[in-house]
Amino acid sequence: MKNNYSILTGITPSGSGEVHIGNYLGAVVPFLELQKKADKVYFFIADLHALTTVQNKEEMQRNVENLVLSYLAFGIDTEKVVFYRQSDIPQHTELQSILNNVTPLSLIKRAHAYKDKLQKGADPEEINMGLFSYPVLMAADILLYDPDYVPVGDDQKQHIEITRDIAGFFNKTFGEIFILPDIYNMKESARLVGTYVKRKMSKSLHNYIAVFADEKVIRKQVMSCFTDPNRKKVTDPGQVEGNPVFTYHRLLNDNKEEVADLEKRYTEGSVADVEVKEKLLQAILLKFKKERELYNELKEHPDKIKNILKEGAEKARTQAVKKMIEVREKIGITNKYSQFTY
Ligand code: ADP
Ligand code: TRP
Hints:
Layout (H helix, E strand, L loop, with lengths): L5 E6 L9 H17 L2 E6 L1 H4 L6 H18 L6 E5 L5 H9 L5 H5 L2 H8 L9 H4 L1 H10 L5 E3 L5 H18 L7 E3 L30 H9 L20 H9 L3 H13 L4 H15 L1 H11 L2 H30 L11
Parallel strand pairs: 1-2, 2-3, 4-5
Bound molecules: adenosine-5'-diphosphate and tryptophan.
Adenosine-5'-diphosphate (ADP) binds next to helix 1.
């Protein structure tokens, strides 16, 4: 691992763009740590990637707004992090178009996103080109900025391998200009279990607890959590291990004495589920009090957000343009008649 390094990562505004406590523990907390360690950080909202599945104007707008507000409320250091929207930098799609020409079809056919769709029974003739070419856009996202490392979860690692391959093909064909990025190995935290479907917490399964939703909504999500299915009455001794409500208490309730007390009473059968849940709700609201306030405050000031994204886009564009001028030179689009400027 290098001493001074830059990182780049993106997040796709699919689903509802809401952030749940699983995302918080598995993605937001590691990101906040990482932004302290790295020297330079590029972080963007991959709205063009979301277009493969989000094909509704209001939904797209809502998802992007939710994500931008959420990450700012969690405390992205915008002094250090270049925070922008992918679609604000047209060089991403320009480079994608160019990279398409050095990308073998066979490489893309092996990509997970495409193969998963086929496995789920999709007709290969019906899959949209956006999904098919998803890894090429991702390669463009990365290669424009020369990052040393790309921190991604396991499901995205193959895409970084593909990026390295594409960069290699380009360099070999036109000359060395792209740096092959390394995967930043994130300590994979265990997947947080969902509230009532016994799978990982996920927006698509609707088994989540949102961080920034109205208190009423969060209350409903907490109250619908699974507990020990064998416990019929308050006086029955209950199981704490593998009980999602206690999993959440342990991870998010900063009052450790309260957690220990609830666990003890639950195990001996002297506390009602509803009390455990009510305390969980209060613990979550307290844990995210500052962030929830900031979220609501930012939501009232769209101009402030617009300015943050404008500054991020300007910084990102400076780097992207620099790289694209080199690419244009290398591929010979720039010639003695050229007058094009960005
Ligand atoms: P969802 O499945 O709810 O749509 P995403 O796929 O958008 O969530 O996940 C965004 C990030 O949050 C990913 O980096 C992933 O690692 C993390 N994440 C998602 N669900 C969980 C979970 N249940 N536990 C821990 N981390 C999670
Ligand atoms: N595809 C990534 C995901 O869904 C998001 C993403 C898009 C990304 N472009 C990227 C991540 C470039 C890292 C680098 O999680």
